[in-house]
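Here is an idea for our session: we take a single protein and study its fold together. Which protein we use is up to you, so please pick one and set it down. Once you have written the record down, we can walk along the chain together:
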Amino acid sequence: MKKIGIAIVALVCSVNLYSQQPERQEHPRMEPQEMAKNTVSKMSEEITLQFAQQDSLTAIFSKFYIEVGKSRETGDYAAIKQLKSDRDAKVKALLSPENYKAYLKFMKKQQDQFRSRRPEGGEGRGGRGGRGRGGFGGQM
């Protein structure tokens, strides 16, 4: 009888502790125009851009972020790859070859930083073990 009581107390304590874990807070989404201004501002720190180029890049990125948002809402993730390609073609036409190389380097750095901030695994992606391997890479 004592063992059952201890088991019940342990179960209640573990449920109580689990329920007190802080929930993951979602960051409010920025507007596409604000995201574009931030992107171009960061880019300007690494690439010398004329004011007209900054304005054009802001317009390109605003349109890109709006379209990506629409694609995410509809679940059309394949379209995002084409949107990136279209954006890069417009940027290439705007920048010198030297600045375009710097742009590609900047975008790679941004992508790496974004991926490093994402939680490992992700919902529906199998987590650490991936594909139901129990986190041990299938080796048990």
In short: The chain has five helices and no strands. The helical segments are 2-19, 32-46, 51-74, 78-94, 97-117.
